Structures are given as C-alpha cells and as structure tokens.
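Sequence, please.
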C-alpha cells in the first residue's frame, strides 16, 4: 500500500515528506516529521539510512537535558553474535514529555532463533517476521542509532541496559564498524539502589507492576516507552529527577568505548559486595571449624549408644553457629549417632525452622525434622 508502512497492528502512515519506498523508521511522535540525512562521520556505516527529526525541536530550541530510552530485539543471540532486527527508542525532555518515539526495523540477515534466559526456545516477537526482509540490515541504521546514543545533550537509559549495549557492540564487530561511545543508565539498577536489594534482577514487568505502570510487552519501541514510564514513576516516588536520583544513590553510569563495556556501579553495590565477601569469609571459617570437630570425633563415637543408626544433618545456618553446632554434634557422637553433610543421606534433619533446599532434600529422603529449639531444650534437661 503506497504511503504506508506495515506492522503487526496494521499500517502506519509513512513519514511526512518521505520519498515512497524509503523504509526503516516508524515514527510515532505527535509532531510534524521531516526526513533527512546527517553528515557522514566516516566511510564506515555511512549508508544513506533515513532518519526522523521532529519539526519544532531543531536547532532553534535548546533543552538543558533530554532522555533517550531504548530497547533492542534480536533474531538470535549467541555468545559472540547478536543479529538485531529492531531498535526501539523514545526521546523525552527532562520532565518526561514525549518528543519522539520510533521503531527502527532491520533485516537481521539470519534465521530467528528466540530463547529465554535459560536458553529455552519458544519466545515470539510481536512482529511479522517476513516484514523484516523489507528493511535494510544494521549498517543502514548504524549512523542514526549512533547519533541518538552519542548525543551530548542526552542521557541514555534502558532496562537491563548492559544486554542491549552488548547487542550493539556485537553488531559493530560483526560489520567491522567503529565502536559506539556513550554512557548509559539502567532502570533495573536504579531499582536495586532505591530498594537496597542487589541479589536479584527485577524484570521490567515486575517493576512496572510495583510502580503502578501499565505494561504489555510488545514491540521494541513499546518496551522503550514502558521503560520511560517506569523511570518517571520511580523518580516521582523518590521525589527526585533522574540526575538527582543518580546523585543521591551515588550511581556511576555504565560505559562503552573501544568495544569495551563497563557496567554501572554505585556506593550501595560496593557496600553490598563488601558485606557479602565478609559473610563469605565468616562462613568459610565457621565451616572449617565445624568440620574439624566432625572429622576428629566421628570415628570416636560411642558404639551401641542410644542414637546408634541415626544419621544427622544440620541446616547451613546451624552449622555456622560453631559454638552451638560443635556442642550438638559431640553429643550426637557420644550417643552413638553419625553426621553427614548431605541432607539426602540423613534420617534426622535439624534446623531452626522448616523450609529451604536442604530441608526439602532431607524430607524427600525420608528424614525426620527436629527443630533446633527442641534439641537445645532436651540437652539442658
């Protein structure tokens, strides 16, 4: 259909003023659009891909800051290759007022093999796969994407952004283009810092639900827009702008330069890693002390005692309470019992409470559960 571009939802009007047949960018800002090309930055990647600019937001107006949110979809991702098929982006001012949003589609030059984080196949992108062949591959979009992300007046953001930055990096290597060079922030990392929780990665959908943002996974541009709304909601909850949030939590942006990617960092993450290392060292010392007693006294246990035939196992936190665990295991040995570090091999499992992988493994093997409180009370009698 002349003058329109195909999408799964139907057809979008072609960019105003765009020569018919020029493809590659679906713009959805509410402003008059014009099609042009930017000056070449070198021979590599200077294919004449169209780009969209918003009339009224050109050189005559200046903004102290604008935000560029982006998301990428790939036909397939392997360790050293990522074949991009969609680059979605949203541009706003520093108050999250929408300036532009668009999907840049491209031919991935490869088969679609979509997997989740665990490598399981079956994911489906919200596009008609055959449509991608109608668009030029990554080299035609390289300059447009580079200009968006390397804009000195823009703050670049995404969700789990390091993954998308890696896709860009792999594509530039694939086509032997110069590396991207820009700093970037991550709404997922913002969430970790505001929640002071660094031990799990929160998906965009979970974060959106927590912040009351409507989110239905769809095209790359829709995910970029959802990322923007989540960032806006988080800033509103915190009563801060993006730059103020970054300053409050001492967040350092991620970076890419010369094909080297540096992840974001913060003082909160630094403290978490230091505390985790301290706990790890304490656990190692407690483990060594406990099993030194087990190995020393196991073969000296009383034969024919009241616990003969009983094989005990403790939860990890009980083992780490060396003063309690060594006293208890000595009493077990004195009564003829034995000890194992494997819950699936015991017939008596001791912990402060029910739950956990070790607890489940013990009970699946037929072990009886005895709360530590019960044991400690019996030992005092």
């Amino acid at each position: 259909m002349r003058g329109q571009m195909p999408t799964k939802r139907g057809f979008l009007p072609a960019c105003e003023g765009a020569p018919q047949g020029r493809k590659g960018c679906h713009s959805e800002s509410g402003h008059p659009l014009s099609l042009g090309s930017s000056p070449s930055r070198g021979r590599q990647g200077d294919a004449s891909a169209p780009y969209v600019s918003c009339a009224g937001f050109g050189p005559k107006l200046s903004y102290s800051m604008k935000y560029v949110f982006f998301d990428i979809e790939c036909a397939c991702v392997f360790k050293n290759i990522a074949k991009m098929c969609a680059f979605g982006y949203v541009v706003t001012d520093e108050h999250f007022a929408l300036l532009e949003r668009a999907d840049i589609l491209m031919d991935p030059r490869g088969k679609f093999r979509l997997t989740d984080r665990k490598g399981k196949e079956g994911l489906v992108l919200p596009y008609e796969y055959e449509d991608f062949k109608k668009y030029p591959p990554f080299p035609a979009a390289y300059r447009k994407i580079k200009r968006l992300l390397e804009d000195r007046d823009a703050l670049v953001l995404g969700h789990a952004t390091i993954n998308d930055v890696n896709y860009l990096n792999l594509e530039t290597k694939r086509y032997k283009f110069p590396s991207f060079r820009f700093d970037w922030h991550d709404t997922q990392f913002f969430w970790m810092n505001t929640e002071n929780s660094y031990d799990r990665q929160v998906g965009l959908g979970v974060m959106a639900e927590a912040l009351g943002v409507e989110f239905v996974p769809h095209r790359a541009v829709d995910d970029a827009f959802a990322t923007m709304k989540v960032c806006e909601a988080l800033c509103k909850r915190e009563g801060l702008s993006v730059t103020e949030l970054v300053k409050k939590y001492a967040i350092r942006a991620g970076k890419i330069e010369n094909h080297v990617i540096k992840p974001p960092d913060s003082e909160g993450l630094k403290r978490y890693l230091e505390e985790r290392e301290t706990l790890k060292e304490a656990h190692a010392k407690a483990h060594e002390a406990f099993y030194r007693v087990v190995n020393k006294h196991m073969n000296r246990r009383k034969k024919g005692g009241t616990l003969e035939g009983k094989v005990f196992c403790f939860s990890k936190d009980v083992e780490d309470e060396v003063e309690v665990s060594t006293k208890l295991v000595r009493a077990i040995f004195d009564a003829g019992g034995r000890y194992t570090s494997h819950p699936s091999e015991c017939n008596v499992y001791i912990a402060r409470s029910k739950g956990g992988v070790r607890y489940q493994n013990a009970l699946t093997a037929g072990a009886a559960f005895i709360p530590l409180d019960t044991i400690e009370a019996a030992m005092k009698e």
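Residues 4 and 13 are 5 Å apart (CA to CA).
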